[in-house]
């Protein structure tokens, strides 16, 4: 089923993007960055990003089973015992971080299918990976301290999917901001700004519309760069929002909000 990110890959955006990140984004640095070059890590960047995301959620008080929900679902598909690793995740010590990375390794089964799975017991993070993950989670804790608390996470958009975009889920919301977690060596691109705008618009079309009417900003948190990026929804022209609703997401003209 076509997802938000797949749809973004299919379309050609206007020059600079529907929302040009260079012009729109306001950056704030939190001052905590990983101590080692990412090239020193021996675990894939994607898996590191998932582990940092979920481990940060756990450290802010979300139970392991809930924070690593997709990982548990992936493990259940291949009849593996995710709880073996989940019980080892207790904090930011080395053992917990290794267990979190291995547990996150089940994610791919649910998201991309059995053929993408690598036995998680073979994942053996080196010291650079462990220390970088610890620093990125600490950056995440500082982020939540300054921008939280989280009001909703694991965002879905029931009632808002279309024939064009049939799946997609956002990361989390605070009181007035919808956030996306990006663990990348690069700042956000116009694909990323379009992604969060689509999430917000789909939220407004969903059964949870009331919650999304409170959103004033869209933002990214990147623990690898130790940076926060935000832009105001009021600064996006109504005609741009209308075009995204109709031409990108696939709502009928009569159903468009903008």
UniProtKB/TrEMBL annotation:
Give the domain of life. Answer: Bacteria
Protein name according to UniProt: Uncharacterized protein
Tell me the organism: Thermophilibacter provencensis
